[in-house]
Amino acid sequence: MPGLDLLSTFVEIYRCGSLSAAAERLGLSQPAVSGQLARLEDQLGEQLFLRSRKGVTPTAHAADLAARIGTHLDELRAALEPSAAGAAHVGTVRIAGAGELIAMRVLPTLAPLTTRGLRIHVTLGLAQDLLAALSAGQVDLVVSSIRPTQQEITATPLVDEEFVLVGPPSLARSVDSARLAADPVDALAHLPLVAYADDLPIVRRYWLSEFNRRPPNHIAVIVPDLRAVLAAVVAGAGVSALPRYLAEPALSAGSVELLHEPAAPPLNTLYLATRAGALVHPPLALVHDHLRSRAHSWIAL
């Protein structure tokens, strides 16, 4: 089993995003930090970081390991240093993401941390706008539906969300099953669409992924909240592609039905995005690790 010194060094590298920054925080030389990382990777039999001129990028194994041990190491450090006890729990973390995901998954996951003194400030919006706000230092963490490309942002895969194509029973009955099997775009073309935005971000992705074509359908409703999209679909305004976690209660209740069952469901990866090196701040690291370690329990995401 790796020693605590190696694991502590690993967590510092993960949070700092570079060997040199981790060495500075630990009061060690960079060669010493590199040596400790090499020993840990040798003991685990896994590469933990990809090196580049920009610093280090954690592998998926490294992200999982950091989520499992980071908070525990912080708590052990606090126990050994009473003056630092609770520091990770006290402070404000500015998180951002899509309204429905924040409301239905993120806030319920983070709520227990608020009883220990953590304050959460939420900003809702579109992923591109929120990532720009992250770059500008206006938020601390974005739960993003797109992978960031900005050099100053570090992104960790969080969980895959599955999309389903649903409509109210009245419209579902209007789809001819034989035509759907032979030419799904044509079979679905008469159905009005309910979408999140004018460019049909999720609906377009579903059509391109499953049918290799853009939807030719008439657009009935545009509303920038997926909960409202679902409400409009349930009310009979049209059909839409939605994350399964959002549509599942309505599917179970029979108020919407699946219009198409793909051989492999279309998926989209959600990311936890922070500014490079920002995870050295204990409250942000706590939120990041908490989300990362518990996202697996987000049933049907």
UniProtKB/TrEMBL annotation:
Alphabetized SUPFAM superfamilies for the sequence: Periplasmic binding protein-like II, Winged helix' DNA-binding domain
- Does Transferase appear among the keywords? no
- Which PROSITE patterns does the entry mention? HTH_LYSR
The HTH lysR-type domain covers which part of the protein? 1-59
Statement: the UniProt record of this protein carries the keyword Transcription regulation:
yes
Recorded hits in Pfam families, A to Z, give: HTH_1, LysR_substrate
Q: Which UniProt keywords apply?
A: DNA-binding, Transcription, Transcription regulation
Q: Which family does it belong to?
A: Belongs to the LysR transcriptional regulatory family.
Name recorded for this polypeptide: LysR family transcriptional regulator
